[in-house]
Design goal:
By secondary structure, the chain is an all-alpha fold.
């Protein structure tokens, strides 16, 4: 790993593109796995299922990886500005590659307009991560930011269960509770910890104003999504999605964004 670090640092852009291609290969391989019948019958659901499958792999990988980095090197939590290890630097390369791949998948598949929130999120993440790769600064901060991927595992599972029309299953009910817990414990806490660090050390941090503005934008997004999540899973409003045959109208894409 020590020998790999100079290669990554001398060619960060190439490293990100290579990781992006690896996630694209994973995208193709995951298409071979069985898919629920209801998902196969709809083009949007089929694309969304494939997209979420890759996202789930990324979340399982990087969420575990980020936690491991902090457990092995506790200084990651204290020295957000300049601490990093070869393993944490590689983690940011890998995760950057995923976000580039996912943004490309959304745009090239023709779903950019309906997924603009994800594209905005990805753009903010990519610029921060690429900055860290080129400057070797804030790598520890990027690792902490990837704590959110622990929550993303349950978020992606939630959407996949909705795609499969399994909202009434026990798995969905268990997952919604786990999702609430991980949202608070890993997503909100990580974001607010980073925000607190930036505000506290704002006077001497490199490009602190850009990172603080980015963090505030991200905080607003996750709070809005948290409200939508609570409303959809714990305080649902009565909706009329019943079609002529007395069944739920699942052609609507709106339920997937809640």
């Amino acid at each position: 790993m020590e020998a790999l670090l100079p290669v990554l640092q001398s060619h960060p852009g190439t490293s990100v593109l290579v990781c992006s291609l690896l996630f694209r290969v994973a995208h193709r391989l995951l298409q071979r796995l069985p898919v629920p019948k209801v998902v196969k019958q709809d083009d949007f659901r089929s694309w969304k299922w494939r997209n979420l499958s890759v996202s789930l792999v990324h979340s399982l990988l990087t969420g575990t990886w980020a936690l491991t980095c902090v457990v092995i090197w506790p200084e990651t939590l204290r020295n957000i500005h300049s601490h990093y290890t070869p393993l944490s630097y590689l983690l940011i390369c890998v995760s950057s590659g995923y976000f580039v791949q996912d943004a490309g998948d959304i745009i090239l598949s023709g779903h950019a307009r309906g997924s603009w929130e994800f594209l905005l999120h990805h753009a903010l993440v990519i610029w921060c991560f690429v900055y860290t790769l080129y400057t070797q600064l804030y790598v520890a901060g990027a690792v902490i930011a990837l704590f959110v991927e622990v929550n993303s595992v349950t978020l992606h599972l939630r959407l996949m269960l909705k795609l499969a029309e399994a909202q009434s299953s026990s798995m969905y009910q268990i997952n919604r509770l786990l999702n609430l817990f991980t949202y608070i414990a890993f997503r909100l806490s990580a974001q607010f910890y980073l925000t607190w660090y930036l505000i506290k050390n704002y006077s001497w941090l490199d490009h602190g104003n850009y990172f603080l503005m980015t963090m505030m934008a991200m905080n607003l997004m996750i709070l809005i999504y948290f409200y939508r999540l609570l409303r959809a899973d714990f305080f649902p409003r009565k909706r009329s999605y019943v079609g002529q045959n007395g069944t739920q109208n699942n052609n609507s894409k709106k339920f997937l964004s809640d």
